[in-house]
Inverse folding.
């Protein structure tokens, strides 16, 4: 077994990593984890005033600080019935465009581009691609400038307040930003060309669901009170939990999300996939030129989508400023009430962000915050798994580490990070034994034997289950009994499916892997129809495992092969000890 | 005689990464300073990082997991001078809101339920000097550019940093701002360490206390002034607690002489 671990993701904002475990021809484990300790923002805001909440929650993340502030403002203002004047909304959009420009240009030019051009970092890239590095840096500085003008400082500025701004930017400051944005346009165009014409690798490619804010009207944008999903569903932001369905995994402090039993992706690629048709001007023209079906299944195109959004932002900034300058600075808006509920959603650079509040008599009684990286975590693991498994199948094991790095970075995860600390370790044979032992030590297990009686080695799972039952184990089911089995979902304990599985390995090879990897891997999943037709929640499936044995033959008739017979014995011994 | 460049490492424990990001945002000045120093490790900026002996380690974030603690102890062993940057490293940060271990555990369970974390054990958030010796502190949430550059320059030259010991009010007066307290707005300027150039009052907004408590000897009098203006004790202390981390108990205790 080999373990590939990217312990510190370099050049990503935040601390986290990915590990992958390879057992023979099979990827048996991929873990995306966030090293950040728990910070408990949802609890430490309770009992505070809405203004204090606004001081605290932007500190969740330095790079998305204004997105957090904007989402909090939208949630709090709904709860307090504060209707912000048109100028306030426009100026908030401007600050948010600044954050998009800052975050996207940092990510595209200084973090992602060195990967595609084959350099360890932006400084090394600058030797040959000085122009790109310089433009990237200048765009980022300009984004920072907008953020500072609108919020008061580079990071965690307090100027955007409930009902307005502490101080409104003057005409001169706004015109300066407008003129600079216009000057950047040719470079923004060039950015789109550069990022859309890169040769993105075609591993991994797999369809997913895309989720983003649905802006009102027919324009592209980053805020809205409705959620749009690429399958056509629309959900009111008040019902955001119907989309996010959070759950916890033990290997990370970052929660997970799934929609209708599937992982989903958020971020620039989700926005372009769901709303790209709405882009106008140069961004609209280049969208039509470059967009194709691969954008729907390849996460690496997120970098191209970010470039389109950079162009959109530079085209939008002058329009927003022209509209804002027509309006007077409004007086602060007073609270309509001091008790109520509200959910605010905005698109942070890396995806949809929810802030939900419940306020009673001017104090917060409940806070729920769902960040984009938490929503992406499950798809990050899935795409990493697919990349690793496909490269392994193609005999390109040496490419796995770098490709996983590329995949994770393409999601632009919001976690404070570092150097490639990647280890590839050869582990002893029969890794499944230790993993099975720790699984069964964690809690009760329910074994389900799968297979067909009349097909030689395909009987292995059934045979194993019968022999486990004969040994006195109560919690064992055979595939043909599942229809009459008590409600599977309610059966306590973790499912461990026993089955003959074609891993493309030596006959008798045993692998233990999470069931969801099998579901993600189309070539293996068709054999699990009987289990999948049972009404199991995603969380139950995600907690289930498959203990598979590589068959020698699954032809009709015949007995178990010697190798599979031996494997069955080994598993029985392991489970009985 | 050619002198070797000083070796610097910049590290992030649990926090928002805002202090490291602010250092990254120093761009041009940073290039000048980096000519005088050798950046061995800066996770946010580069991938070829080395974990060796250091002249200066800048550490951001609080200790909130066993992993943080191990990393911190390793950094301390390797560094001649350790500077805590930002209020998470210096005071425990926003995440040090629950000081009672039982209360912390209850709230942690409310967020994460009963799931036991396998990758690292969570710890109640503490400032880094709860575990290792810290040579210098740089306050702020995030740290300010001017203070950072002057501190780094001084430490590079072998001198201790010179930080303001007076409260935000002094900087506010320099800017000739109208005092928000006179408009009956609870501003924490009198109790908060200066260094941000009174940025919030300069935007007609009250100071939120994000530089942590001021060291000024006269803080009891400042606190008394707020009480005399009619502001609520609970409100003042709660707002101060937002950014004072584990130091709030000590801060409250030192406000002696307060007239009830």
């Amino acid at each position: 077994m080999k373990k590939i671990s990217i312990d510190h993701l370099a050049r990503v904002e935040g601390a986290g990593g990915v590990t992958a475990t390879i057992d023979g021809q099979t990827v048996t484990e991929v873990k995306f984890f966030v090293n950040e300790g728990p910070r408990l923002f949802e609890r430490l805001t309770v009992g505070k005033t809405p203004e204090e909440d606004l001081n605290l929650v932007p500190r969740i993340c330095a790079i998305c600080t204004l997105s957090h502030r904007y989402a909090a403002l939208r949630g709090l203002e709904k709860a307090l019935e504060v209707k912000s004047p048109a100028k306030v909304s426009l100026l908030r959009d401007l600050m948010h465009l600044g954050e998009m420009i800052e975050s996207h240009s940092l990510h595209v030019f200084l973090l992602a581009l060195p990967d595609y051009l084959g350099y360890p970092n932006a400084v090394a890239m600058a030797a040959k691609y000085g122009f790109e590095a310089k433009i990237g840096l200048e765009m980022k500085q300009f984004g920072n400038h907008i953020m500072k003008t609108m919020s008061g400082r580079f990071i965690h500025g307090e100027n955007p307040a409930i009902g307005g701004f502490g101080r409104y930017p003057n005409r001169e400051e706004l015109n300066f930003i407008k003129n600079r944005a216009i000057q950047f346009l040719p470079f923004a165009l060039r950015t789109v060309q550069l990022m859309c014409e890169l040769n993105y690798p075609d591993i991994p490619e797999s369809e997913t669901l895309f989720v983003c804010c649905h802006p009102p009207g027919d324009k592209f944008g980053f805020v809205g009170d409705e959620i749009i999903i690429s399958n056509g569903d629309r959900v009111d932001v008040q019902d955001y939990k119907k989309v996010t369905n959070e759950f916890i995994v033990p290997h990370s402090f970052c929660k997970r999300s799934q929609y209708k039993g599937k992982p989903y992706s958020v971020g620039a690629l989700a926005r372009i996939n769901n709303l790209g048709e709405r882009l106008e001007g140069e961004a609209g023209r280049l969208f039509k030129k470059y967009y194709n079906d691969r954008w729907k299944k390849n996460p690496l195109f997120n970098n191209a989508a970010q470039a389109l959004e950079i162009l959109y932002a530079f085209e939008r900034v002058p329009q927003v400023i022209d509209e804002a300058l027509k309006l007077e600075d409004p007086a602060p808006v007073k609270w309509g009430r001091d008790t109520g509920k509200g959910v605010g959603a905005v698109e942070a650079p890396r995806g949809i962000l929810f802030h939900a509040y419940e306020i009673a008599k001017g104090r917060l009684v409940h806070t729920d915050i769902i960040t984009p990286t938490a929503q992406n975590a499950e798809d990050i693991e899935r795409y990493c798994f697919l990349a690793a498994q496909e490269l392994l199948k193609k005999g390109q094991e040496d490419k796995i580490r770098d490709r996983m790095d590329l995949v994770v970075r393409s999601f632009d995860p919001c976690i404070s990070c570092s150097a490639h600390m990647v280890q590839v370790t050869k582990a002893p044979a029969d890794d499944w034994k230790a993993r099975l032992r720790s699984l069964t030590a964690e809690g009760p297990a329910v074994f389900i034997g799968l297979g067909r009686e009349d097909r030689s080695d395909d009987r292995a799972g059934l045979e194993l289950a019968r022999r486990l039952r004969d040994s006195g184990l109560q919690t064992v089911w055979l595939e043909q009994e599942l229809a009459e089995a008590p409600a599977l979902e309610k059966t306590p304990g973790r499912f461990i499916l026993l089955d003959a599985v074609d891993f493309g390995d030596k006959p008798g090879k045993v692998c233990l892997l999470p069931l969801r990897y099998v579901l993600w891997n189309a070539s293996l999943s068709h054999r699990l129809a009987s289990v999948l037709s049972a009404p199991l929640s995603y969380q139950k499936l995600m907690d289930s495992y498959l203990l598979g044995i590589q068959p020698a033959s699954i032809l009709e008739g015949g007995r178990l092969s010697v190798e599979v017979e031996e494997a069955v014995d080994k598993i029985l011994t392991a489970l009985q000890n | 005689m050619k002198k070797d460049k000083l070796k610097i490492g910049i590290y992030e424990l649990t926090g928002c990464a805002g202090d490291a990001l602010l250092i990254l945002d120093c761009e041009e000045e940073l290039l000048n300073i980096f000519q005088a120093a050798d950046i061995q490790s800066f996770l946010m900026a580069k991938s070829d990082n080395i974990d060796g002996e250091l002249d200066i380690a800048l550490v951001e974030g609080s200790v909130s997991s066993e992993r943080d603690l191990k990393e911190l102890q390793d950094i301390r062993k390797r560094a001649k001078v350790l500077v805590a940057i930002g209020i998470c490293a210096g005071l425990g940060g926003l995440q040090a809101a629950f000081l009672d271990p039982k209360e912390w555990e209850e709230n942690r369970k409310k967020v994460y339920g009963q799931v036991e974390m396998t990758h690292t054990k969570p710890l109640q958030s503490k400032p880094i000097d709860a575990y290792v010796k810290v040579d210098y502190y740089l306050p702020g949430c995030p740290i300010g550019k001017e203070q950072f550059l002057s501190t780094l320059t001084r430490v590079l030259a072998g001198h201790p940093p010179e930080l303001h010991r007076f409260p935000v009010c002094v900087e506010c007066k320099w800017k000739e701002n109208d005092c928000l307290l006179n408009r009956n707005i609870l501003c924490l300027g009198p109790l908060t360490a200066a260094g941000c150039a009174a940025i919030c009052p300069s935007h007609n907004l009250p100071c939120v206390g994000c530089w942590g408590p001021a060291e000024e000897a006269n803080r009891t009098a400042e606190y008394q002034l707020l009480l005399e203006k009619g502001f609520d004790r609970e409100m003042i202390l709660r707002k101060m607690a937002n950014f004072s981390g584990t130091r709030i108990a000590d801060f409250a205790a030192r406000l002696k002489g307060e007239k009830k």
About this structure: The two ends of chain B are 65 Å apart (CA to CA). The CA atoms of residues 228 and 246 of chain B lie 27 Å apart. Chain B has two domains: 6-156, 168-253. Chain B has a mean pLDDT of 88.
